[in-house]
């Protein structure tokens, strides 16, 4: 019986036709399948899509994604993907996480073909891609929904580069068009894409025997035209440098160099990671030593496969420059790890270029698969375990408190998470900690004000809303909630003053219209109350609270028929809302309809076994 060639067997199982894609899909699923059960995170999800989820679920807003910024970002491809998820998944986190997972899989396939286009052997390209899929530095990009922007950026950058490589060999206008189109999509995904033309020219300079010839004038003209047009249009929509700090340029330069070294070290040895990474909470010595060893290694081996190593190093540095420089002058000083998703491509190119140039003695060849498999599974387990830190809000918040204890945003996010869970007393302490490190953040005062409000400390809540408004004069949510707190203290005129400020700037705020109606109700100005309740319903016909409040107003004037209509409609919108049930009970009580009264009381007792109509009438 003939002996089987192990290489041919492995090639058949792993590399023939569609098999690489199947393996990439299975490994992606094995590494990240748990993320499909994750929820939304407390970091940027609200700003980017959750607060406007209904807007994203309206397909007619498609055009506005390309014509305006969202949350201070002009990244229409990213926001278009959120729109698709919001519509197809009915707003559930599952569809968002599924998209991240599938985009990572697509990115891996493209990386595989990119390596082949760079003339890497197919088996080396396959194993390199496996490392890319399971590398822990990619956890934040895949497990955190907003991290998707770097996956999208990578998909379009790699696709564009593959097309450019083909153009550099054939000068085909089709390949040039494909390259330019993908470059445009990359620009519309994230700003770092502006680096691509520079890297393309470097590729030609490094690998072409004849250097940059006349054939490249056409792509250069197109690059300049598209880049300038994109930059001008984006600048007209997004105000730059709003959170930039140029007061200490030498310090920012030092921070930039330090961050470049640390980020490089994290890609090589990703075992001191952080969700909300700052330089203050990062152990720098080990990364500096690691990068120093890498530099020495490159110095002694630079002649081996020099061109490809130089290309890999150029890729790493160029795609790290913009996000690292941005973070170095950003007042937040956060160096997110999802921004290393694309630089990892260059690191893998450089690393496999170095090791593929080594001549290993035949007797050691059998150990290579063992070493690779060990590294692969260590990275896979590390990545899978770390991704679980993103599973829910509390796990996310606890992780950033543990990994970035000196950063005020860690305390701020933990405070918000606890407050959303109803743990307002404990949230106040985290807000206090955050304010000690950053007393000029209006959002912390606002959220602490909400925590005070929910613990019925209305005066303290008003003090915090005042401080938030003093920092940000157009903080209309703070005006609105200050008005609610004033109303609870009986300061109805002050409440109306705040609500009117909100209404002047947000004339379609149905909640504010309802709040104005409530305060007029309490002031005994019932005509005004009815007017504002009705306006609230006109703006939002599905707002149960306004129907309920108008129903109670009608009940006050013994207009039982209209009151009952409003209570019934409020319950069709929210069947668990107790106040319309009570309103119905009162209507039946006052009209001596004992049969229907018994039915409604049965519903109320299911909701609150201690409820009695007599005690309610006594208290109200």
SSE blueprint and pairings:
Elements: H1 6-14, H2 19-32, H3 45-48, H4 53-56, H5 62-67, H6 76-88, H7 93-117, H8 122-134, H9 139-143, H10 148-170, H11 173-187, H12 196-207, H13 217-237, H14 249-268, H15 284-301, H16 306-329, H17 341-356, H18 367-387, H19 393-403, H20 408-420, H21 424-437, H22 442-454, H23 458-471, H24 476-488, H25 492-505, H26 510-522, H27 526-539, H28 544-556, H29 560-573, H30 578-590, H31 594-607, H32 613-619
Share in helix = over 70%
Oligomer: single chain
Cα Rg: 30 Å
Round the mean pLDDT to the nearest integer and report it: 89
Which shape, going by the Cα principal axes?
A: elongated
Low-confidence stretches: 1-5
Q: Structural class of the secondary structure composition?
A: mainly alpha
**Largest sheet, if any?**
none
> Could you give the distance between the termini?
95 Å
What is the number of E strands?
0
Q: Can you count the helices?
A: 32
What is the strand content?
A: under 5%
């Amino acid at each position: 019986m003939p002996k089987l060639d192990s290489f041919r067997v492995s090639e058949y199982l792993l590399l023939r036709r569609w098999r690489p894609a199947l393996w990439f899909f299975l490994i992606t699923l094995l590494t990240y399948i748990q993320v499909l059960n994750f929820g939304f995170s407390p970091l940027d999800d609200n700003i980017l899509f959750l607060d406007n989820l209904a807007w994203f679920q309206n397909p007619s807003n498609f055009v506005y994604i390309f014509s305006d910024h969202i949350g201070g970002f002009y990244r229409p491809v990213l926001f278009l993907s959120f729109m698709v998820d919001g519509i197809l998944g009915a707003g559930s986190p599952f569809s968002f996480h599924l998209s991240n997972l599938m985009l990572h899989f697509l990115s891996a396939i493209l990386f595989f073909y990119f390596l082949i286009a760079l003339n890497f052997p197919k088996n080396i390209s396959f194993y390199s891609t496996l490392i890319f899929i399971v590398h822990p530095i990619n956890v934040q990009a895949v497990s955190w929904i907003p991290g998707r922007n770097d996956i999208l950026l990578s998909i379009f950058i790699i696709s564009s580069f593959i097309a450019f490589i083909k153009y550099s060999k054939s000068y085909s206008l089709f390949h040039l068009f494909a390259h330019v189109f993908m470059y445009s999509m990359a620009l519309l995904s994230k700003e770092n894409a502006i680096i691509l033309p520079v890297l393309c020219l470097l590729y030609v300079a490094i690998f072409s025997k004849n250097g940059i010839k006349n054939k490249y004038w056409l792509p250069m003209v197109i690059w300049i035209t598209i880049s300038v047009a994109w930059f001008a249009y984006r600048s007209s929509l997004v105000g730059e440098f709003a959170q930039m700090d140029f007061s200490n340029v030498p310090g920012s330069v030092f921070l930039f160099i330090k961050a470049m070294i640390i980020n490089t070290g994290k890609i090589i040895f990703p075992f001191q990671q952080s969700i909300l990474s700052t330089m203050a909470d990062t152990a720098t010595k080990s990364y500096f030593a690691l990068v120093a060893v890498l530099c020495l290694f490159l110095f002694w081996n630079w002649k081996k496969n020099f061109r490809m190593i130089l290309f890999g190093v150029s890729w790493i540095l160029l795609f790290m420059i913009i996000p690292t420089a941005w973070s170095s002058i950003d007042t937040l000083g956060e160096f997110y790890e999802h921004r290393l998703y694309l630089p990892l491509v260059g690191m893998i190119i450089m690393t496999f270029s170095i090791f593929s140039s080594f001549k290993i003695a035949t007797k050691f060849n059998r150990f290579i698969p063992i070493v690779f498999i060990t590294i692969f599974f260590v990275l896979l387990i590390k990545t899978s375990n770390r991704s679980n830190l993103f599973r829910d809000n509390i796990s996310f918040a606890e992780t950033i408190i543990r990994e970035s204890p000196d950063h005020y945003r860690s305390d701020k996010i933990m405070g918000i998470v606890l407050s959303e869970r109803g743990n307002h007393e404990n949230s106040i302490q985290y807000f206090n900690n955050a304010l000690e490190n950053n007393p000029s953040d209006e959002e912390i005062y606002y959220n602490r004000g909400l925590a005070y409000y929910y613990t019925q400390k209305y005066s303290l809540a008003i003090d915090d809303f005042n401080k938030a408004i003093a920092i940000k004069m157009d903080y209309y949510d703070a005006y609105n909630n200050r008005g609610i707190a004033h109303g609870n203290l009986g300061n109805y005129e002050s409440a109306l003053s705040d609500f009117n400020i909100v209404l002047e700037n947000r004339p379609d705020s149905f909640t504010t219209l309802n709040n104005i109606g409530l305060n007029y109700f309490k002031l005994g100005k019932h005509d005004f109350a009815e007017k504002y309740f009705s306006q609230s319903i006109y703006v939002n016909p599905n707002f149960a609270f306004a129907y309920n409040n108008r129903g109670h107003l009608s009940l006050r004037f013994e207009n039982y028929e209209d009151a009952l209509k409003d209570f019934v409609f409020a319950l069709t919108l929210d069947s668990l809302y107790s106040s319309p049930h009570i309103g119905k009970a009162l209507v039946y009580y006052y009209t001596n309809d004992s049969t229907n009264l018994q039915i409604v009381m049965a519903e109320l007792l299911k909701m609150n076994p201690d409820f009695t109509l007599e005690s309610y009438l006594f208290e109200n």
